[in-house]
């Protein structure tokens, strides 16, 4: 009987999760929910997992409509709770008012994208919520990949996002500290210098086999580490952590924590030639900065254990780590390598091409920072896959812009018409072509005209008549305007009303019957990019 009840609850949880993730419920999420609803279920976790596995499969088979029908019947609170929950993000585990420290930890090796923005908003949100601190920390210990332009670009993007941090620091300022910790690990027999060729150590790591370097004494290792800092060539030696070569988590198979890099660092130049790898630097810095909560996407999940291990060996506390799925934008890559490929092949014009998901591209396209913040609150910190469609992003942006965006008339492919004693006007060619003799049209918000013959119209009346087709128009003082449509790469050429000429670069407006657009450049013609309809 009890078992039956659990089975049913688990199925409802699975359907809820499937509903939230468009038919892709995750076993992990359902397990978490089940355990928090009844911690005693832990006692028979094997059985519970079997129930969940089946429930998730069954739930994922339902259509979204079937899920909704079922949930409204079985758990009507779900929809109400969901709406309330969307407004605020959940509490953080172990968070104390005034004591929470979160961090933004970008590597200055490329431009930020939508995934960074969402992640940054989470960290910003919690630092604010608990009156804590937010640190911007550059993870810049990979001299070959990093460049000064990216430090500035990241700060610029953060300013645009409206994210203020309390402190800024760079891992590359702490190289001496990393040396100190490396030496203490060597000293305690927890790290050794490996001089095996890359291929060999890769194979040994894959096979779960130890190499002979592992047997060297601490004294020998300290001497070799000193040699690394002075004369050894890049690639000829690395410092590895002595963990477990047979671990199922392959990141724990004696990972490299420091290596020789002879290239100049953008800020430190050639002052150092031994550099920490990401996990080593990151683990130490999180502890050193007093970070209490690490909120990051789950591509790092495998490394959490390694980072916690490093801190444990150094006698440091570990923060709470909260992982969530990384945000992608449908149809456009966020990985640096893939974007670079598109740029190199000429398929996109650069990092700020409005079809991309970099923050520079989104900003250039007229997506406002509030949209990304709201997106973060809507997607929340889920473990399921999170691919956002461009349409969903546009819908949020439209909702934010609509109440305040100024409206303007725009006439594509303008056709001139003379209205006797009223002046010269331009209307869209397409409208002009569809006119029939004697038909009455309204120049929107102005007056009605009657079509006489090709290019000839006459004033009809002022009165608004129902069923009269309304046309966009501009007068003879209108200005040449071009609107780039990012998806097609095509430009709509036309005339906009003269007030558009007074707008500044970066203003986002609404062209009636076209959509929202951002001013890219003023001058003749005025150039805009279409944000969305
Ligand atoms: Zn070795």
From TrEMBL:
Boundaries of every Glutamyl/glutaminyl-tRNA synthetase class Ib anti-codon binding domain copy: 414-452
One BP term from GO: glutamyl-tRNA aminoacylation
Domain Glutamyl/glutaminyl-tRNA synthetase class Ib catalytic, chain residue ranges per copy: 99-401
Positions of the tRNA synthetases class I (E and Q) anti-codon binding domain: 471-519
Top-level taxon of the source organism: Archaea
Annotated Gene Ontology cellular component terms: cytosol; protein-containing complex
Compartments where located: Cytoplasm
Enzyme Commission (EC) number: 6.1.1.17
Ranges spanned by the short sequence motif 'HIGH' region, renumbered to the chain: 106-116
InterPro entries the UniProt entry points to: aa-tRNA-synth_I_CS, Gln/Glu-tRNA_Ligase, Glu-tRNA-synth_arc/euk, Glu/Gln-tRNA-synth, Glu/Gln-tRNA-synth_Ib_cat-dom, Glu/Gln-tRNA-synth_Ib_codon-bd, Rbsml_bL25/Gln-tRNA_synth_N, Ribosomal_bL25/Gln-tRNA_synth
SUPFAM superfamilies named in the record: Nucleotidylyl transferase, Ribosomal protein L25-like
Keyword Metal-binding: no
Class of this enzyme: ligase
Annotated Pfam families: tRNA-synt_1c, tRNA-synt_1c_C, tRNA-synt_1c_C2
Keywords, in A-Z order: Aminoacyl-tRNA synthetase, ATP-binding, Cytoplasm, Ligase, Nucleotide-binding, Protein biosynthesis
GO molecular function, one term: glutamate-tRNA ligase activity
Family according to the record: Belongs to the class-I aminoacyl-tRNA synthetase family. Glutamate--tRNA ligase type 2 subfamily.
HAMAP family: Glu_tRNA_synth_type2
Function, in words: Catalyzes the attachment of glutamate to tRNA(Glu) in a two-step reaction: glutamate is first activated by ATP to form Glu-AMP and then transferred to the acceptor end of tRNA(Glu).
Annotated protein name in UniProt: Glutamate--tRNA ligase
Organism lineage string: Archaea, Candidatus Undinarchaeota, Candidatus Undinarchaeia, Candidatus Undinarchaeales, Candidatus Undinarchaeaceae
